[in-house]
Each structure stands twice: as C-alpha cells, then as structure tokens.
Design brief:
Layout lengths: L19 H17 L5 E5 L4 H15 L4 E8 L6 H14 L4 E5 L9 H20 L3 E3 L4 H14 L3 H4 L5 E2 L2 E2 L7 H11 L15 H16 L3 H27 L7 E3 H5 L3 H14 L9 H13 L3 E5 L3 E6 L2 E6 L5
Parallel strand pairs: 1-2, 1-4, 2-3, 4-6
Antiparallel strand pairs: 5-6, 7-10, 8-9, 9-10
Helix pairs in contact: 1-2, 1-7, 2-7, 5-8, 5-9, 9-11, 11-12
C-alpha cells in the first residue's frame, strides 16, 4: 500500500480522502475501459518506474484489488543503463505489494538503422504483446499523457508530417490502450507525491541527444515565453487531426482493396481520387508490392502522385531498386532498369 492508504494503529476506520490527481487517474482508467465495453477486462499494465506509469500502476492496482479488472504489471528492462535491472525489480516488488502480480522482462537493444529510441520502443511493445497473449489479456495499458501527446504532435510538425502523423497517439490502437491521454504529466506527478509513491527519474529523459527530450524542453520554454496552454492546444490539434485522418483513411482503404498487390493499374483508377485519398492509396500500393515503407517519405509519394496525375509517359525511381512507369494509360510497378 502507498503511504496515503495506510492507516495508523488506533486510527479511525474511515477511508482516507483520495487526492484529486489520483481520483482523476482512476476515473480516466475506468472511463477508458467502460468505452471499450468489456466487464472485468484482463490488462497488462506497462510500468517503467517513472511518475506516469507508477501513477497508472497505483490506480490499476486499486481496481484490481476491487475485482473491477484482472491486471498484471510488466516492466521491461532494456539493459541500457546499469541501474535499470534494480529499478525493474523494485517496480515489480511495488506492484506485488499493492496486490498486483508482476513480472520483469529483459531485452537487449540493437539500434541498427532505426536508432536507439525506435529500437527500444519496438522491443518493448513486442515484449508487452507477448505478455498480453500469454495472459489472454484484452488490453495493454500504457501511461502516455496529454504531455506526451503534445510532444508527439510537435515532433510531427518539425518533420513536416501530414494529418495522420499530427493525429498523434490514439486512445486505443489494436490491443493498446492509453487511458491517460486526457491528463497532464503534472497530475501523475501530483498523484505520486500525494500517495508517497517512489519514482525513478530516468537520466535519459534529460538527454538532449534524443529528439523527444528536446521537444519536451522546447514546449516548456514556449509555454513560459508565450503564456499560452500550448500542451493542451497541441493535444486538441491531435484530436481534430485524428478525426479527419480516420475519415480519409476509411475512404482510402476502400479504394485500395482492388489495387493492393497489383503490379499494373489503370491510371484512371488513381486519378478519380481526391488528392488526400490518392496519396494514401499510392503509398499503400507500392508498399504492398515490396517498397520499404520506412524509406518512402512524403516527398517521394507527392512526386509519384504528380507523375500519375500528369498521365503522360514517365517513370519514377523508388526505394528498393524499383520504379513506377506510366505509359499507355497504365501505372506499372517494376524493378528498376539497373536492377534487371
């Protein structure tokens, strides 16, 4: 139990008053699960030891003890720092002291071409999904907050991304649920203080070698200098962009179904589409034929759309030694001449 939940000897049996931040977190978790429409759902709770995830752990442990959910905490040790094994063990022990079963998963990260941040994220979600499947759980809960959402949108803006990227993180995606997206980091930190919860301050969260750390610092500076609620405004931008992107993606999916995986497509099948739908369909088309999506940026997609819209004979090289040739009313995907 946390400090705030312990009753001293001889004290009144009255239940302690719940602090507003912890109450908001419990309410957010309950609301997210209610919206998902499952009674007594099975959950994997991802816990790193920081304030956000420890506040989420505290809330879900309470609901677990009440029988409202069936939850298991999973903390992933990425092995990037010597102290992380100790932190992971402490997190698991805390979860178990609060009545929730817990486990530690250890991974080793190979940064490769995607970089350390992305590689760690990929490994972490793979472990969490394995744990979910093994437990037969409905959802993986993460502690992303509105503050994280604002950072995600800002990073998308800096990359010059489109609507889908600016839509940020969805409250639910597959088996992933983010119940705290409507709350700020200040609230999770307040909950931990009020409940006497020990948290870990990861020094990598202050390392400006990582783009997200720089975005976090930039946001804090902008809010101070401009006197505007930029975090809340960027999170609202994400909600608006997500609604638009979901609508466009639905139309693009319908248009892609008969094109996906087909090497030769009539140009008119593309040119009949609105620009917002066309860019999605064209990108999906070439990826379905083997072009690596991570190497297919917005500029190249725009060039390919322009080639198809023009309708005259032409060709455009694509990643993976491939190309698209437009000729005689057909858009043909093939190996580039130099690769044949």
């Amino acid at each position: 139990m946390s400090t705030a939940e312990r009753s001293s000897a001889g004290s009144s049996p009255r239940r302690p008053t719940l602090d507003p931040a912890s109450g908001a977190i419990r309410g957010a978790v309950r609301a997210a699960l209610k919206a998902a429409g499952r009674s007594e759902p099975g959950l994997i709770v991802a816990v790193s030891g920081g304030a956000d995830s420890m506040a989420l752990l505290h809330a879900t442990a309470f609901l677990h003890r009440r029988g409202e959910i069936r939850a298991r905490a999973v903390t992933v040790d990425h092995g990037l720092q010597t102290v992380t094994a100790e932190v992971a063990d402490r997190v698991a022990a805390t979860a178990e002291s609060w009545g929730m079963p817990a486990e530690v998963a250890t991974v080793r990260i190979d940064a490769g071409d995607e970089g350390l941040e992305a590689a760690a994220r990929t490994a972490r979600y793979a472990v969490l999904e394995t744990a979910r499947a093994a437990a037969g759980a409905d959802w993986i809960l993460t502690a992303h907050t509105r503050s994280d959402q604002a950072e995600t949108v800002l990073l998308g803006l800096m990359r010059g991304s489109g609507t889908r990227s600016l839509a940020g993180m969805s409250p639910t995606s597959g088996h992933l649920m983010r119940p705290l997206l409507g709350l700020d980091r200040d609230q999770t930190e307040a909950s931990c203080r009020a409940q006497g919860i020990e948290i870990w301050h990861d020094p990598m969260n202050d390392d400006t070698a990582f783009s997200r750390v720089r975005a976090r610092q930039l946001l804090a500076g902008l809010e101070t200098e401009l006197g505007q609620p930029i975090t809340a405004n960027l999170a609202r931008t994400a909600d608006l962009c997500r609604a638009d992107a979901d609508f466009i993606d639905t139309r693009a999916e319908a248009a892609s179904q008969h094109i996906r995986g087909t090497a030769s497509v009539p140009v008119e099948d593309f040119t009949a589409l609105d620009d917002a739908v066309l860019s999605r369909v064209v990108r999906d088309w070439v990826i379905s034929l083997g072009v690596p999506g991570q190497n297919l940026g917005a500029v190249r997609v725009a060039e390919l759309c322009a080639l198809i819209r023009d309708g005259r004979r032409g060709r455009l090289s694509l990643p993976g030694d491939t190309e698209v040739v437009v000729s005689n009313g057909q858009a043909v995907f093939q190996l580039a001449a130099k690769a044949r």
